[in-house]
Amino acid sequence: MVRKIALFNHKGGVSKTTTTFNLGWMLASKGKKVILVDTDPQCNLSGMVLGFSTKQELEKIYGESAKGKILNIKAGLAPAFESQPREIEAVNCVPIEGQDGLFLLPGHVGLAEYEVTLGLAQELSASIQTLKNLPGSISYLLDKTATKYSADYILIDMSPSLSSINQNLLMTSDFFILPTIPDFFQ
Ligand SMILES: Nc1ncnc2c1ncn2[C@@H]1O[C@H](COP(=O)(O)OP(=O)(O)OP(=O)(O)O)[C@@H](O)[C@H]1O
Ligand SMILES: [Mg+2]
Q1: How does DSSP classify residue 10?
Q2: pTM of the predicted model as reported, rounded to 2 decimal places
Q3: Domain locations in the chain?
Q4: Residue to substitute in 14, 18, 180 for testing ligand 1 pocket (most ligand atoms within 8 angstroms of CB)
Q5: How sure is the predictor about 57, in pLDDT bands with cuts at 50, 70 and 90?
Q6: Which ligand neighbours the alpha carbon of 177 most closely?
Q7: CB–CB of 8/171 below 8 Å?
Q8: Can you tell me the mean pLDDT for 130-148?
Q9: What is the mean pLDDT of the chain?
Q10: CB 41 within 8 A of CB 110
Q11: If pLDDT is split at 50, 70 and 90, which confidence band does 186 have?
Q12: CA neighbor of 71 nearest in space, from 166, 172, 159, 145
């Protein structure tokens, strides 16, 4: 069964993304199957893996031809958040070059559009039927994707905030790691 580990700190720039990548790489080098999940709308992890300069790679995942395909986290969650009458399906992840067993579930700058809806759902889903499936949808998507890739670990790179998506990820993960850097405010 997959273990989901969230990397959280609402302070920015403390090495959440870097630790996600390096920890994932090390676990994969020890023979584990690992999916790195980019839930930060800044998409730094996706940028790090895909390369900011390879336009074709980005086009494949975010461009016109990617419409209707499940190639990033927002597309994966769309059935739940955009009231599309179809089941949530596993995301097609990107194998990370140079390390077998390591995959990226790409982020999306538009994931932030789901924040308000999820926040409402987390407060009101007990009383409003149509919001009931939303709080469990992220975890469901990650579990389905983990099953598709027989993943041992899911490492979740989070945005630096106390957003509703982050609240949800922390509640539904098995463990969390809190990277910290003591520094001065300048
Ligand atoms: N162990 C480390 N040693 C030296 N520099 C590091 C280390 N980890 C991260 N950095 C550097 O610190 C900066 C911030 O790292 P990173 O982007 O991983 O932080 P973050 O917590 O993900 O930031 P954000 O909150 O914006 O998502 C980067 O320039 C990165 O290269
Ligand atoms: Mg980051």
Answers
A1: S
A2: 0.95
A3: 3-177
A4: 18
A5: confident
A6: 1
A7: no
A8: 94
A9: 93
A10: yes
A11: low
A12: 145
CB 78 within 8 A of CB 20: no
Which of residues 53 and 71 earns the better pLDDT score?
Answer: 71
CB environment 69-89: b (16+ within 10 A), e (fewer): ebbbbbbbbbbbbeeeeeebe
Non-local CB neighbours of 51 within 8 Å, separated by 6+ positions: 57
* Best of 10, 17, 36, 158 for a ligand 1 pocket test (most atoms within 8 Å of beta carbon): 17
Report the nearest atom of ligand 1 relative to the CA of 179.
Answer: 21
Q: From CA 71, how far away is CA 96, in angstroms rounded?
A: 14
Gap between the Cα atoms of 16 and 32, Å rounded: 20
CATH code for the structural domain at 3-177: 3.40.50.300
Question: Beta strands 94-95 and 102-105: pairing type?
Answer: antiparallel
Position 53 pLDDT exceeds 70: no
Tell me the per-residue pLDDT of 73-92, one tens digit each, with 9 for 90 and over: 999 999 999 989 999 999 99
Mean predicted confidence (pLDDT) in 150-176? 98
Evaluate whether 88 touches 144 at the Cβ level (below 8 Å): yes
